[in-house]
Design goal:
It is built from no helices and 20 strands. The chain is mainly β. The strands form 2 sheets. A 16-stranded antiparallel beta barrel has the order 2-3-4-5-6-7-8-10-11-12-13-16-17-18-19-20. A 3-stranded antiparallel β-sheet has the order 9-14-15, with no helix packed on it. The protein is globular, with a radius of gyration of 21 Å. The N terminus is likely disordered.
Length: about 375
């Protein structure tokens, strides 16, 4: 899931201005993991994971970007983003298409290959169909966006990269218009030190496909990040609520999300807290340009009567070796969909214990 932006090819059109370019990149990744909560026959896997093609083009003030992926281990093809941009000047720009929702720490909160717990709630690296306007000042940026729907406008299509509100045949909802406002500011200190802060607001409507009624949803986020030389520490808090119409007087406490081929329920209201600490070793050798080691603890909780805390704790390292990026993560989960649980933030009475996953990703980025 996580990848650095690496470009190999730059093609300049003959006779065009120096700013006109098309850049093509991508990745090929292999993955191995061990999961202690599944049957012995499938606990250990080694497989081709994904193939990605990305395009980044520019002509005068216009830009185009796209990221298209095939995940062999999930047997799906997905569009991560595909948007057009226009830059009025160095301060004001706009993007239109399937583009990143300006919410939370940008561009990512997590250092880990599998992202933070917020990714599975739709609050990290979320890309929807809409428009975003950015205004950049000295050490600050203000972004406002409107999104018509999820990237496909097909809530029953679970084959997607971003985690979105879904229709599983019983709990049938779809994203139906959403406003976002995001403000971020940084404070450079002495050389090698910087503090970054953001606050985000999200508000919109969810269409109940059973009765065609629009219900509201909202979310708030704030984060602070402090970096000193090789050390980085980040905290983020998110609070959210979905107004859900009960089905047969049941399930007013949950809403279904989906991605990578599977739907799952999350608590209809709750909050998350993520703490992330990382240290980067730089220029280790002529081939190893960096090694970043991190620990990240994320928790989702709710005040609902049916709530049960979900936890994801990741420890790992990522090494940049020539054009390869190698991730090694250990992941501890409690009542967590990604780690053997039935969903996020609810008590499913399935007695799921604490689970562990060891994950190795080897990716060639071009």
């Amino acid at each position: 899931m996580k990848y650095p932006t690496i470009v190999l090819i730059s093609i300049f059109s003959a006779g065009a201005c120096a700013e006109d370019s098309v850049k093509i990149g991508g990745h090929v990744r292999l993955n191995a993991d061990y999961r202690d909560w599944v049957d012995d026959s499938d606990r250990t896997r080694f497989e081709f994971e994904s193939l990605k093609l990305a395009i980044d083009g520019k002509t005068g003030p216009f830009t185009v970007s796209a990221d298209y992926r095939f995940y062999e281990n999930a047997d799906i093809t997905v569009v991560r983003y595909a948007d057009f941009g226009y830059h009025w000047d160095d301060s004001v720009s706009i993007k239109l298409g399937i583009t990143r929702v300006p919410f939370g720490k940008q561009p990512f909160l997590s250092n880990a290959f599998w992202y933070s717990i917020n990714y599975y709630l739709g609050f990290e690296d979320d890309n929807d169909a809409g428009m975003v306007v950015n205004y950049r000042g000295d050490n600050w940026q203000l972004s406002g966006g409107y999104f018509f729907n999820d990237e496909y406008n097909k809530p029953a299509n679970f084959d997607r990269y971003s985690f979105d509100v879904a229709d599983n045949g019983q709990l049938r909802n779809k994203e139906n218009g959403q406003w976002n406002l995001h403000y971020e500011r940084s404070w450079p200190h002495e050389p090698g030190a910087n503090t970054n802060f953001s606050v985000s607001l999200q508000r919109g409507e969810i269409l109940d496909l059973n009765n065609l009624k629009n219900n509201e949803h909202w979310a708030l986020s704030t984060h602070v990040q402090h970096s000193v030389n090789h050390f980085d520490f980040t905290l983020q808090y998110v609070e959210y609520e979905y107004d859900v119409t009960p089905v047969d007087s049941q399930h007013s406490d949950r809403i279904v999300f989906s991605a990578f081929g599977f739907p799952f329920p999350i608590a209809s209201e709750g909050h998350s807290f993520v703490a992330n600490a990382a240290y980067t070793f730089k220029n280790i050798s002529s081939r190893i340009s960096s090694l970043t080691c991190y620990t990240e603890y994320g928790v989702v909780d709710s005040s609902l009567a049916s709530a049960s805390q979900s936890v994801q704790w990741v420890n790992g390292c990522v090494a940049a070796v020539d054009k390869f990026y190698i991730y090694l993560d250990t992941i501890t989960g409690e009542n967590m969909w990604f780690s053997g649980g039935s969903g996020i933030g609810l008590n499913f009475n399935d007695g799921s214990p604490t689970t562990h996953r060891t994950n190795l990703s080897i990716g060639y980025y071009f």
